[in-house]
Amino acid sequence: MDQPSSEQGPEAEAHLRSILATVPDAMVVIDEHGSILSFSAAAEKMFDYREDEVVGRNVKMLMPSPDRERHDQYLTNYLTTGKRKIIGIGRVTTGLHRDGSTFPMELSVGEAWLGKRRIFTGFIRDLTERQQTLLRLQDLQSELAHVGRVSEMGTLASSLAHELNQPLTAVATYCESARDLLENDPDAETLTMVREALDEAAEQAVRAGQIVRRLRDFMSNGEMERRVESLQRLMNEANALALVGSREHGIDVQLSLDPRADLVFVDRIQVQQVLVNLIRNAIDAMMDSRVRSLAIRTSREADDLVRVTIEDTGSGINEAVAPQLFQPFVTSKQNGMGIGLSICRTIVEAHGGRIWFEQGSNGGTAFHFTLPSGDTKA
After folding, report:
1. Element holding 301 (H helix, E strand)
2. Which of 25, 108, 273, 287 is the most exposed place for a label (fewest CB within 10 A)?
3. C-alpha distances in Å from residue 150, one per residue of 80, 94, 156
4. Alpha-carbon torsion, ordered 135, 138, 143, 148, to 10 deg
5. Which value, to the nearest 10 degrees, does the dihedral of the CA atoms of residues 97, 103, 104, 110 take?
6. Run of H or E residues at 15
7. Which stretches of 71-221 are assigned E, i.e. beta strand?
8. CATH number of the domain at 10-126, please?
9. d(CA 198, CA 156)
10. pTM for the whole thing?
11. What is the CATH number that goes with domain 131-223?
12. Which CATH architecture group holds 225-378?
């Protein structure tokens, strides 16, 4: 390692002092033994020590365990072997405030020579604000996803009212029939008919309850919780919501689910939101089409991923909006909010997958997204 031949003069030291006083990131300069030589103004503010309180002390005082106990050995190993672990590389680690509290920080260490003296300069950035921003962003994404579900439910409201009305009307009809049959002295045959009517009423009540349960789950705004789930089950539950009213529009639904791609490691509610959104979009896209066929397929991909494809026979994606289709507030729908596909992308990418679209084989649009397989988690 080359060393400068001349000693640094007072001007160089004054220049260094001016840098330490103004640089926005904290700077801590230490010698080969780990003793602090200088402590910038930003470092004073970050660690809550004055420079005169730390100069001459070992820099490990700014580290929590176990880094504190290991630091001297790290430095000795580098001086002995020349093998770098942090110097010139940088890493995210933890700092220790004067009051004993810790904080996340980004540390970059540079090495230099002042004459015959080797020094190390640490450049430190407090990541607390960045982490808080990321956490807030995650909260906002969760809130936006919930808003998306509320918006989606608004479009489903009339169809769901019809869907709920059917079992509730059936319950009323069966109960009225049972009452009428019991008005006169019932014989054995009549009692059998009453029991059958009550059984049918109970079955329809359960059906209505299942619809309400699916609605409640779908509207849930809970924390993301990933588990190994059956994709077929997720499909069935999502379809129960998304395909409400589709028969009235003459939509033919074709399911092709690969049994090798059944297990996925996902948050059930969030993935069902993606499915409901894409299926409802496909249905809307086919309202003016002569052929209304919806194909839902799954397949096993490489890298432990599962692909879901939802293909319609609609009019396709408008070329003007296609490049920004997954951006917020971009929509091809006349009354759309433009957040549905953006939320889908956020959810899929949070699961480690990706989402994209292409022209369908029948002239419509095929949306694809990938999810992590649950085979290795089962």
Report:
1. strand 293-301
2. 287
3. 63, 40, 10
4. 170
5. -10
6. helix 10-22
7. 91-96, 102-114, 117-126
8. 3.30.450.20
9. 30
10. 0.47
11. 1.10.287
12. 2-Layer Sandwich (3.30)
3-state SS assignment for residue 253: strand
* Angstrom distance (rounded) from CA 353 to CA 372: 7
Radius of gyration of the chain (CA): 32
Q: Which two tokens stand for residue 295?
A: 């194909």
Please count the helices (runs of H) and the strands (runs of E) in the chain.
9, 12
11-38 confidence digits (pLDDT tens): 666 666 666 566 678 889 999 889 999 8
Q: Tokens 């309180």 identify what position?
A: 53
Strand partners, 103: 95
Task: Provide CB contacts within 8 A for 197, sequence distance 6+.
Answer: 174, 175, 177, 178, 181
Structure tokens at 39: 């402590």
Of 78-87, 109-118, 122-131, 328-337, the one with minimum mean pLDDT is 328-337
DSSP 8-state assignment for residue 302: T
For residue 182, give the DSSP letter.
T
| Highest mean pLDDT, choosing among 37-46, 168-177, 236-245 | 37-46
φ/ψ of 265, rounded to 5, equals -105, 95
pLDDT for position 116: 81
What percent of the chain is helix, strand and coil (3-state, nearest 5)? 45, 25, 30
Torsion of CA 311, 313, 314, 317, to 10 degrees: 50
Phi/psi for 11 (5° steps) reads -65, -40
**Residues shown for the chain:** 378
* Kind plus residue range of the DSSP H or E element containing 172: helix 128-181
Tokens read off for 239: 């379809």
Contacting residues for 151 by C-beta, under 8 A, at least 6 apart: 337, 339, 340
